[in-house]
């Protein structure tokens, strides 16, 4: 008999929703995700992380649908190691932005993710180092001309005040119409391909799976999750989310990320749809 949970696809943000880079995946989340998928539920992630970092962070938990990776620029089937969809930046426009920005913000860290999310570090700082260590990312340090084609995003990394000022500066500049700036964390500002986001990744994934978006449940914590949450069938915010994110959700968890917010919601969903 078909499980009542199988009609749902749960799409979960990773950092500060499902797990934290420092503390990893809460045991509660690990246990309940496995129970949810064993009972027929479908679970995947939507994240800025590349596929290799997703695999390392999930610590052996198998996703039951392809991952929305690099903020929607890659759809990646971790079980098969295959790219199902890739969107790329206009390299010339992104390079022009980097060339303009770096002299004005000389202490920025700059990373380019290309191909399947491989990381190329154009300029290192303590934030790019922490990014690599915390997310278990390999990297290649090289000048911009040595980065291969197929850029999926650029990441600027610095302290929150510098990133705030950079965001304000970027709004005053024009580098072309094919890329846009996306704040993804207080310490990161990214360049993404226009028309690409976690939300577009969800729509592409649903099309590939033949699943109506009304059967999606999104769990998130930050402003870059808002579009995804608003376009999903049902939206959940974790307790540590900002007020604007909570206001856009259909429900808010009692637990924070580190307390097991995702496990809390999934167990409530299991209880509501099964006899457990």
Automatic annotation (TrEMBL):
Keyword Hydrolase appears in the UniProt entry: yes
The protein, known as: Cof-type HAD-IIB family hydrolase
UniProt cross-references to Gene3D superfamilies, sorted A to Z: 3.30.1240.10, HAD superfamily/HAD-like
Keywords on record: Hydrolase
PANTHER family, sorted: HAD SUPERFAMILY HYDROLASE-LIKE, TYPE 3, PHOSPHOSERINE PHOSPHATASE
InterPro entries documented for this protein: HAD-like_sf, HAD-SF_hydro_IIB, HAD_sf
A single Gene Ontology CC term: cytosol
The keyword Transferase is assigned to this record: no
Positions of transmembrane segments: none
Gene Ontology MF, one: phosphatase activity
């Amino acid at each position: 008999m078909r499980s009542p949970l199988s009609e749902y696809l749960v799409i979960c943000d990773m950092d500060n929703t499902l797990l934290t880079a420092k503390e990893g995946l809460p045991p509660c989340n690990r246990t309940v995700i496995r129970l949810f998928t064993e009972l027929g539920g479908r679970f995947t992630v939507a994240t800025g992380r590349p596929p290799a970092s997703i695999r390392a962070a999930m610590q052996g938990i198998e996703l039951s649908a392809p991952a929305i990776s690099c903020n929607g620029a890659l759809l990646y089937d971790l079980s098969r190691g295959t790219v199902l969809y890739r969107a790329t930046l206009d390299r010339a426009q992104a390079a022009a932005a980097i060339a303009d920005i770096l002299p004005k913000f000389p202490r920025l860290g700059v990373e380019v993710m290309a191909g399947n999310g491989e990381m190329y570090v154009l300029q290192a700082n303590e934030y790019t180092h922490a990014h690599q260590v915390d997310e278990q990312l390999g990297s290649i340090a090289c000048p911009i001309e040595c980065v291969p084609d197929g850029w999926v995003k650029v990441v600027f990394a610095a302290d929150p005040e510098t990133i705030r000022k950079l965001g304000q500066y970027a709004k005053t500049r024009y580098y072309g119409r094919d890329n846009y700036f996306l704040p993804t964390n207080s310490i990161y500002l990214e360049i993404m391909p226009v028309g690409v986001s976690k939300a577009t990744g969800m729509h592409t994934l649903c099309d590939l799976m033949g699943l109506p978006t009304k059967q999606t449940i999104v769990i998130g914590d930050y402003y870059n999750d808002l579009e995804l949450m608003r376009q999903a069938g049902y939206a959940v915010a974790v307790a540590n989310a900002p007020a604007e994110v909570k206001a856009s959700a259909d429900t808010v968890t009692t637990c924070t990320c580190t307390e097991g917010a995702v496990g809390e919601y999934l167990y409530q969903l299991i209880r509501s749809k099964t006899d457990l």
